[in-house]
Design brief:
The complex is a heterodimer of chains A (220) and B (218).
Chain A lengths: L1 H6 L2 H37 L5 H13 L3 H16 L5 H26 L3 H9 L4 H31 L11 H11 L4 H32 L1
Helix pairs in contact in A: 2-3, 2-5, 2-8, 3-5, 4-5, 5-7, 6-7, 7-9, 8-9
Chain B lengths: L1 H40 L4 H15 L3 H15 L5 H27 L2 H9 L4 H31 L11 H12 L2 H36 L1
Classes of the chains: A mainly alpha (220), B mainly alpha (218).
Chain lengths: 220, 218
């Protein structure tokens, strides 16, 4: 028990919480960016515009089927060779997460819209609504109800996946825990316990939010 | 990129083999464990239901990397010596089994109870009803999401790179750091991942479409 008390002394806890802060920061920024880009790409692919939708679909499919870790490596080590600019670890992570997650979200958003019955659009159009009016007032409100659970679970994945950025030495939660048990191997078990608990709290809070939104929307 | 394949082809393909092998082991393991916990979750008795729920919620909400690292550094320190490949594959199995449990549970729950009752009252035995009525419907519901789990498994197996697991990502990093041709190497690695994941993903989309429209016609 003494090792636990030592491992959880305030210096270490504060260091862990600083890491958690970076994790949350990276997650929130990536969630905002990837939701916006994912929505645009998902809609573009859904609208079946000649060539454009095909190209968007191709890019989305390629990115979705690559490991995020590869995209992180590529953004940090490979991209500077092409672009000639080097990102710091924070922005490299945010860019990599955004690229990967917006592809995942684009697909969720597209299939959410597809899941709304075609008849809805036809009925709206034949009642005199324009395409965008029908989309905004009829299709999207129904699609959003179907999309919220998969979108939130994607966000949960995103939070968990920020841990992969330890490999490019982003000072987030996982990396800070490694630094602490690197100094004293007795701290290993306490640190992994702390990691599990901290990640669980953040992710479980998100899944409770998803359930809450789901209930709210099905009442409406 | 061709240069990388020419000079380091055998190293890349060996990584490809380890990635595939780890994904297959983890798929089989997580199917077994996942189905078991799915049955726990729909059990009429409370204790297994609670155990199933706790298992799924814990492992769905903790990063795979944390689970894999526990097997890679904590387990050898205090329990048994295991190598990176084994540790990574065990981590993958546990992590994925939580997702598979959810998929299987949803699949079983979505087949209407009336189907079994109707089959039985038409004179079929329980086994016949399962074989001809329930399972064909359940499989159609469960296979596309399970396929997507396999794709995730292949992608997630890249955490083996953290554990010296000899997988594709690990070999790619070694090649990238010895040749300094990072861009080319990562393109080559990406291509090899896509060889597995892209056809799988199109197949699952095709099956999903085919089986969902069949349902509408019937």
């Amino acid at each position: 028990m003494n090792t636990f008390a030592q491992a959880y002394q305030w210096v270490n806890l504060r260091y862990l919480l600083e890491g958690l802060w970076i994790t949350v920061e990276v997650s929130v920024i990536s969630i905002i960016f990837s939701f916006l880009i994912g929505a645009v790409f998902g809609l573009l692919r859904y609208m079946k515009i000649k060539y454009l939708s095909m190209i968007v679909g191709f890019i989305v499919d390629i990115i979705r089927n690559l490991p995020l870790l590869l995209i992180i490596f590529f953004t940090y080590f490979g991209l500077p060779n092409i672009l000639g600019v080097r990102f710091n670890t924070l922005w490299a992570t945010i860019i990599a997460m955004t690229v990967f997650e917006s592809a995942m979200l684009a697909e969720i958003i597209r299939s959410g819209i597809l899941a709304v019955d075609r008849g809805q659009m036809e009925a709206a159009r034949s009642n005199g609504l324009t395409y965008w009016q029908a989309m905004y007032h009829i299709i999207l409100p129904q699609a959003i109800k179907k999309m919220i659970p998969p979108i939130v679970s994607q966000f949960i994945s995103l939070v968990k996946d920020t841990s992969l950025a330890t490999i490019i030495v982003l000072p987030e939660l996982m990396y800070h825990a490694q630094v602490i048990y690197g100094q004293n191997t007795n701290f290993m078990i306490p640190m992994f316990l702390a990691l599990a608990v901290l990640y669980f709290i953040v992710c479980y809070a998100l899944s409770l939010l998803s359930r809450f939104l789901d209930r709210k929307l099905s009442e409406a | 990129m061709f240069e990388i394949f020419q000079n380091y082809g055998s190293q890349l393909w060996s990584g490809f083999g380890y990635t595939l092998l780890s994904s297959l082991y983890a798929l089989i393991g997580s199917l077994v464990i996942g189905t078991l916990f799915a049955l726990f979750e729909i059990s009429p008795i409370k204790p297994p239901r609670v155990i199933g729920k706790i298992y799924v919620e814990i492992f769905r909400n903790i990063p795979l990397l944390v689970i894999a690292m526990i097997f890679y550094i904590v387990v050898p320190q205090y329990f048994a010596k295991i190598d990176g490949f084994t540790a990574g594959t065990i981590g993958l199995t546990i992590y994925t089994s939580a997702f598979i449990a959810e998929t299987v549970r949803a699949g079983i729950e979505s087949v209407d109870v009336g189907q079994m009752e109707a089959a039985r009252s038409n004179g079929m035995t329980y086994i016949q009803a399962m074989r001809f009525i329930i399972l064909p419907q359940a499989i159609k519901i469960v296979v596309p999401p399970l396929g997507n789990q396999f794709i995730n498994l292949v992608k997630n197996s890249s955490v083996l790179a953290f554990l010296a697991g000899f997988d594709l990502m690990y070999q790619g990093n070694i090649i990238a750091s010895t040749t300094f041709k990072t861009t080319d190497t990562y393109f080559a690695v990406g291509l090899l991942y896509l060889i597995i994941t892209l056809p799988m993903s199109y197949l699952m989309r095709y099956l999903e479409k085919k089986w969902s429209t069949e349902g509408d016609e019937a």
